[in-house]
Amino acid sequence: MNINDLTIFRTVVQTGSFSKAAATLNYTQSNISMKIQNLEAMYNTTLFYRGHRGIQLTTKGEQFYEVALKMLHLYEKSFELLQDDENSSGVLRIGSMETTAALHLPTLLTTFHQAHEKIDITILTSPSQYNIDRLINYEIDGAFVTGPVYKENILIKEFVNEELVIITSSNHKPILDLRDIEDSTVISFRHGCSYRAVFEHWLHEDGVQPKNRMEFGTLDGIIGCVAAGLGITLLPRAIAEKYMAAYPLKLHEITTKQSQIPTWFIYRKDEVQSPILQYFIESIETYHPC
């Protein structure tokens, strides 16, 4: 077995089929199948169930997948560990909510890049729960999330606090109480978004049922539809203030609710800590919102 075999195994799991893994890695499907069969023969176990509906990890396969992710992660990080500090390079993969990416990452990443020009950064925007799952599966090195994170071997560092407000079009009637929005459409990110979860919790607490719901995958989509009067949303005050120069928006404070929500940076408690991740954490510690 070599590191390429583990890469193939990981890709098969993540794509869900031998054919998709072959296309992703530019191999033939027969080559992928043979590599998996060789792994199964070496460990004398079955890693995948094969059926008419596709493949599925066996219990042993699930256990091996966790081990394979750790092995691949350590292999990738070994190159960083052996570099001289002054010549540190590599790729840092960071997950983020769209709101954090829009509000805070431009300043943070500019400062980080000036100090570490040889380190490339990939930012993947998703709702908090998706970023937590990506971190656990070694797809990213760290993530900015909101809400409690009760996961073993996940370390948390506070980043910023955001005040949540309801955002509407500029001609919307005043919202003094959540019952004032019972006839409104709530616009939000898809499931897994912490702000959506907070809003739904508030509405449930007060027994409020919105008229309709709309989901969007982008912040611009949400803001554009809110400005057009299609519905309302709950987002950080700083987002509303950022977009109010370009869109006809109004913000509404809900003083009866706990609206101060922390944003955390989370990362794994790895046996071997990545040097470039540590540099990034140091930048977070010195970051001050504008």
TrEMBL record:
Recorded family membership: Belongs to the LysR transcriptional regulatory family.
GO molecular function: DNA-binding transcription factor activity; transcription cis-regulatory region binding
Domain HTH lysR-type span(s) in chain numbering: 1-58
Listed Gene3D superfamilies: 3.40.190.290, Winged helix-like DNA-binding domain superfamily/Winged helix DNA-binding domain (1.10.10.10)
Keyword line: DNA-binding, Transcription, Transcription regulation
Top-rank lineage group of the source organism: Bacteria
Organism of derivation: Lysinibacillus fusiformis
Protein name: LysR family transcriptional regulator
SUPFAM superfamilies to which the protein is assigned, alphabetical: Periplasmic binding protein-like II, Winged helix' DNA-binding domain
Pfam families associated with the record: HTH_1, LysR_substrate
